[in-house]
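dumping this here before i forget
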Amino acid sequence: MIRKFENNDINDVMEIWKNGNIKAHQFIKKEYWENNYNYVKEVLPNAEIYVYVIEKNIVGFIGIDQNFIEGIFVDINNQNNGIGTSLLDKIKENKDYLTLSVYKKNVNAIKFYEKNNFVITSENIDKDTNEIEYIMTWKR
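structure:
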């Protein structure tokens, strides 16, 4: 089931965020994510967030700011079960286009977005990590 984020979801969502980032971005030091944890926890509720719930447990979430996807995260034990696609489809329902950024080295995420009809439209350097990131866009 997908539902809107509620304030008491924050700890579960942040645990998925931290573990997901560390696993997906092994090319970035773990400390980077740990050092940004409190900042993200503070600003995350400002985004439009939907959570995916199985048996009262949050197993994934998507955050969006207008037409920019801030991130899709699925609990490590629940990946490759269609949860990310379901969250993405929920956002696509009311949008004509979406953009996001993804690290070039995050090959699995790039494949996921391409499978969901996103295309790479540009690239730049993330000033915080010095890693190349792609801007990807989806249009209805």
